[in-house]
Fold this sequence. Notes:
The complex is a heterodimer of chains A (171) and B (273).
Chain A: H1 5-17, E1 63-66, H2 69-80, E2 92-100, E3 106-114, H3 125-137, E4 141-146, E5 149-151, E6 153-162, E7 165-170
Antiparallel strand pairs in A: 1-4, 2-3, 2-6, 4-5, 6-7
Chain B: H1 2-13, H2 24-28, H3 32-44, H4 52-64, H5 69-81, H6 85-98, H7 100-115, H8 118-131, H9 146-156, H10 160-171, H11 182-192, H12 196-209, H13 214-226, H14 230-245, H15 263-272
Helix pairs in contact in B: 3-4, 4-5, 5-6, 6-7, 7-8, 8-9, 9-10, 10-11, 11-12, 11-13, 12-13, 13-14, 14-15
Amino acid sequence: MRIPWIILIFMTLFSACKPAKNTRAPGSNYPNNVGDINTDPMLDDSTFRACRESNIPQYYSVQSGFEGEKPAIIRYFKQNFKKEKTFAQENGYLTIRFVVNCNGQTGRFRIMEMNPDYQPKKFHDALSAQLLRLTKQMSGWLPGKNENIPYDYYQYLTFTIVQGEITQITP
Amino acid sequence: MKIRYLTLLFFLQIQPIHAQINCNVYKWAGDTVCFRACQIYETANHTRQGSRFSQMLYDSVIAICPFFDMAYMEKAVPYLKRGDFVSWRFWMDKAVAINPKEHLGYRGWCRYQFLRDYAGALADIEALEKIKQPNIGYSVNGDYHLVIAKALFYKGLGQKEKAIQTIETQLSTSGYEPGYYDYLHLAVLKIETGKPGEAILVLEKQRSLSADFAETYYYLALAYKQTDQRPQMLENLALAKKLYEAGRHRKDTYDNPEDRIYREDIDEAQAEW
């Protein structure tokens, strides 16, 4: 019996919504768009507003950036990040994702952490808290722009941590 | 049936990343289920990347035809671009497990481009070399042959002489057409290892290959400075500034590429050299 492929799509779409027992894969509970950050009153500054909530593109889809370009970002963390003795065994990648609004203000910071083998991990609280605080305090993010229309955008910074030191900042 | 599948695998092996898959190969192999999965995959490729609908379509492909490696890879991409590297790696590894020849080079390149994970990137390319010869292919953005990319990984790991040797060997390989930035990276390595005279010769080749971005002139200026040739240094620095201000410098949609220069590099050079 031949099943029309459009029916097959819908059958599998619905079955795909239900993860199999004990095998829930990362990222399989989908928001409207991968990487969307919803406002959380427990975490977020209540005064921060996106200019156009319905359309927040990614940093690579609009003109975006930081005043002074990447060297300014590196310099900022070099000058302000303080390694503590308790960080000595910390290795991996810590990513902070956030929204830059069309006025260049930032908000909705979220942390993602992984070890050098790309497995989830939890960094020492003092380390992640310091990086989060410093990222929140950065000023100089440029408002998004596309054909002279201002945009909000999603940005992230990934810190490579080797023995408690920042050795790389990407992108 | 076995022969049909071997034929199918042959066709899939030669599909470049992001290329349209010819769904008919499944039909010809008599695999109507994967043929339908392939049609859904094609539909998914026309949806907005990373949208719920798009991700669910790729899930459908995977549910119908679990060995459809491209669906895992495409599903992984938005996680990569948006900084969720755990999820990216989870799905990307599945694509690699099914079809390492197709995806190891891409995974290695992404580990470098998005995380500067030099050791991990190198391990992937070395694994690829064991199963794909004579040509391991190019980075997904087309900028580098993966052997040249390997040289960048060596550089990141502090093995600069090995990086130089790797680029020079590749450039002298019969039939190899130099990539757009091969000479630039070689020249920067020469400067960094104290050979500015050789760097000038290499940068002249870079200039004849493409004369339109600021880095060529900035590094020429630096090499001339190190060889005490002030007029040439000033001339090239001025050209670098002019091109930079016109937006003609190295850039990439997702990251700041290797050996890219910034406005402050030129400003500092003008003030201090």
